[in-house]
Amino acid sequence: MIENKQVAINGEIKPVRKRSKVRWVVVFLMWLAIAINYIDRTVLSAAAPFITKEFNLSAGQMGIIMSGFFWSYALLQIPAGWFADKFGQKKALGIAVLWWSLATAVTGLATGFKSLLGFRVALGVGEAAAYPSNAGIASKWFPDKERATVSSIFDSGSKFGGAIAMPLIVWLMAAFGWKWTFAIIGLLGVAWGIVWFLFYRDNPEDHKGVNKEELHYIRSGQTRKDGLTNVQPMKWYQLLKYRNIWAMCLGFFFINYNSYFFITWLPTYLVQERGMNLIEMGFIASLPLLVAMVVEVIAGWSSDKVVSSGKLSLTATRKLFLIIGLLMASCIGFAAFAESAVLAVILLCVAKSGTTVAASQVWALPSDVAPKNMTSVVAGMQNTVSNMGGVVGPIITGFIVGATGSFVPALLFSAGLIVLGIFNYLFLLGKVKPIDA
Prior knowledge:
This protein is an all-alpha fold. Helices cover about 75% and strands about 5% of the residues. The protein is built from 19 helices and two strands. A two-stranded antiparallel sheet has the order 1-2. Helix 1 (about 20-55) runs antiparallel to helix 2 (about 60-75), helix 3 (about 75-85) packs antiparallel against helix 18 and helix 7 runs antiparallel to helix 8 (about 180-200). It is globular.
């Protein structure tokens, strides 16, 4: 027993145990799942030149293969969220990571266009459960006052995974070839899955490592105690009656439209518009992601501190950080007019960091507003719409650049959508509280 202080009870000195810290091991595993998620979805992009040459694929065919991920990923967000809430996040996330890891590992066995497309769609099937499951875990394992911190931590895994993926994958391909690289990367998720099934429990009450002090801290700090039953008070489509659900979905669409610029068109922008060579581009392209990863965690922790202090309501805090983040994100428009490449990169770092400041609140909102035992469903709904931004964003940017010969109009269009996002969160998002059902 670890003792950190003593108190007097009825005249007797009694030791007081420290709270166990199992919930922070859980959040580390959540973070690692998202990091692996983003590494796995990046392998194909890095291997594309080799695959295109080996199978004699056209640019159009490779584009279809790459987009195949989003077909299943976006469409299965809500079913994956429903499954996680109904049968538990242990099964949902554990099976999902094993599924997408195996889909990654066997991609090296592809023989051409059809098999590559099939493996890519399969990857999206597995990865669809990651974010909805993590949102549900946060609602069960953490008190309300820690949820923005937790949300920012697990979402920051996407920036870490995105930043290290390319150099890691390129190194592996140079050492082992592209086929074995898929297999090696896939094994990361298999190892994670084994640890997950051995360690995680769907409720803190069921974990032997959680002592009474930590359990009391978690459950006494929750407005809504998810997971004690699996009863869902309404059908998922009934949630569409509520304005906050629409505000969350639309707002995240505007944010993701901008976010996907950094993992799709940013390398091309740096080379074509800013005249960087490949080595410079490789370093600079990862910089906004690394900066944003740190800023996101700071933003989530800070917003939780503001709520805990009582100086602002939960609604005011969520809106404040969302608006601050989106104002920062609007710097993508100013980057278009920056005279120097250095200033442009600084503004892009601010812009990307702004999307993550907003994301720290976006991923806390499902826990804030969902009916009991429906957090993963709500998270799946907003992620379905947000990923439409990932689908159309790169396409629209490509058409604008193709039509104008410049990235300036494309970046200004992105900034315009951010302005719409600000108005969305200011006026459409109402009081942040659980939906009564």
